[in-house]
Design a protein that fits this description.
The protein is an alpha+beta fold and about 210 residues long. It is built from nine helices and four strands. It has one domain: Glutaredoxin, CATH 3.40.30. The chain has a four-stranded mixed β-sheet. α1 packs parallel to α9 and α4 crosses α8.
Length: about 210
């Protein structure tokens, strides 16, 4: 039976961006079933004691600069340290992922485009026009029907799933973005992907909370 991984993330997260391609490669190599679960980070932080970047102590903010540069080099990915549109409201973009999944599309191409938009292209993923452009680019078609996807993303069904994802994240002990959950064991951060890979390839039972 194929192993299932719940993938909690937000499109505004630089760490989810830095780890996404590596995680998807891990999933493909090991035949994983990935359940994409975009979350509104503020909801998770409010329940789990996390803080948005602006409210963190300067020492923590400063350490983030070192880590971004280290992992940018490690992953060999373009990353602008101070993007023009960061922070921005990621909710419509996150819910566009949900709308794509609901419509039967693989969201991976859109997710990659959205991450690149924020972190290397200085595009505003809070702007519906930018999201429509990315949806069209997804299949390299100017006539891609982005309007129904965006309408669904702004609708009540996507909102309900988005809220439920956050509730499930909190129940699963998710504390940030990205988090990868394997059979109840949480791996927080793209810097834990090697540990996730070890768990999968070894086939070990998940560690538990004593």
């Amino acid at each position: 039976m194929r192993e299932k991984i719940d993938y909690y993330f937000s499109l505004i997260s630089p760490w989810a961006y830095l780890g996404h391609a590596t995680f998807m490669e891990l999933a493909a190599t090991n035949g994983l079933d990935v359940t994409f679960k975009p979350i509104f980070l503020q909801s998770v932080f409010d329940e789990t004691g996390g803080l948005v970047l602006a409210k963190r102590h300067p020492a923590r903010q400063n350490y983030r600069w070192f880590e971004l540069q280290r992992w940018r080099d490690k992953r060999a990915l373009p990353l602008t340290l101070k993007p023009r549109y960061f922070p921005c409201d990621p909710r419509l973009a996150d819910k566009t992922v949900i709308a794509l999944i609901t419509a039967g599309h693989d969201p991976d191409a859109f997710i990659r485009a959205a991450f690149s938009a924020v972190w290397s292209e200085d595009r505003n993923i809070a702007d519906p026009a930018v999201l429509a452009e990315m949806l069209a680019e997804m299949l390299d078609r100017a006539d891609y029907p982005s309007a129904p996807i965006l309408a669904a993303a702004a609708g009540p069904d996507a909102e309900a799933i988005y809220a439920r994802n956050a509730e499930e994240a909190i129940a699963a002990n998710v504390i940030g973005s990205p988090c990868y959950v394997r059979r109840g064991e949480v791996f927080w951060g793209q810097d834990r992907l090697d540990l996730l890979a070890d768990a999968i390839t070894s086939g070990r039972a998940p560690f538990s909370i004593p």
